[in-house]
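Hi there,

I know you've been waiting on this one. I reran it after we fixed the sequence typo, so this is the corrected version. Both the input and the resulting structure follow.
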Amino acid sequence: MRINKKVIGLALATSFVAGSALAEQRELVINMDRTSELDQKASQDLIDAFEAANPDIKVKWNNFDREGYKSAIRNFLIADAPDIAVWFPGNRMAPFVDAGLFDPVDDVWDENNFRELLASSIPATTRDGQLWGVPYRIAGWMLFRNDELYEQAGVEPTDNWEEFLANCEKLAEMDIDCVTTGTRDLWPGAGLFDLINMRVNGYEFHMDLANGKVPWTDDRVRATFAEWAKLVPYITKDHAAFGWDEAAARLSSGKSANFLIGTFAIKTFRSGGMTDETLGMQAFPIINPDIPRSEEAPINTYHMPSGAKNKEDARKFLAFVGSADQQTAYNKTTIGMPVNKLATPPDDKYLTEAFELLASAHAVSQFFDRDAPAEMAKPAMEGFQEFMAKPERVDAILERLEAVRQRVYR
């Protein structure tokens, strides 16, 4: 058989080039905690897109179950750090920042115009004047309402606090709870505290309180509870017996008119029979118009461990995941909300409205059990639950929380 030497030479050259490319591929190790099928698919799609855009990089993806990840993260950051790790901003990242286990990524933000495009997440991702991660998903806390009940009561939705309370009185006359919540697991009640406190005192004060810089007996904290006390008579009385999903069922079934909860509850409302015609949504009412409007929206972030072996490509990945196109794609799959202002949220009426409210907010808090250390968050949320049941105990509750603050933040 006649052999074409030119063909063989070309094949050998091609093989050499391909082999060299493979040999030159750099490994990027990412640790994640993707438990749902949607999150796993979105993450795999993200990695595939990153590898396609960077053929000289091969991603090694280590996936943990969520609880296992929480237990393992400190150990692997110390003993065998990946190049990228998923985590949370705010107080949840603070111990790792303070221990020198995360690197600052201000350069990634500056080089990709993230200070403008991801502006609402800057307060949460900042510590000691530096930025420590890149956000990729957010879940906004909104006031959902049953519009059929509003129509029956002859009232209109409002963003004014006093008008909202007046609506509550009319709904109460119909034996309808104006506001429902489910504090069996404590955390839903923290959403009410967070939004009321930010509406009364502002985001900066709220964060100072969460960080132990303000006494719980401060008059400004008492002012928050005084406004909250106006709402307590209209809140579902046995809220401590309910989980959030049972509270959602009260809104869907017409037993309650409003529910402050995360956008993750939209599916639950719809499965309970609510439609775009019967389910309303808005930001929590304004209490002090002189205070810039801030919102509550837990954010998920990617971080670069200080022990990362491939920091150059880790920075490339952070820039990639913060981009509008990738945040659009990821959140389309997970039915979540992107952080990037130029990203397109999923084609969902409520997520689109929530995205606009969050993007235009002065700042975004993370939720009390993320913004405050666990040792403060749990007794505080127990206090919130108790206050909504027994508002006359406010002095004892605040004095107890102040004692906890002095112990926790020493």
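Quick highlight: The first strand starts at residue 26 and ends at 32.

Best,
R. S.
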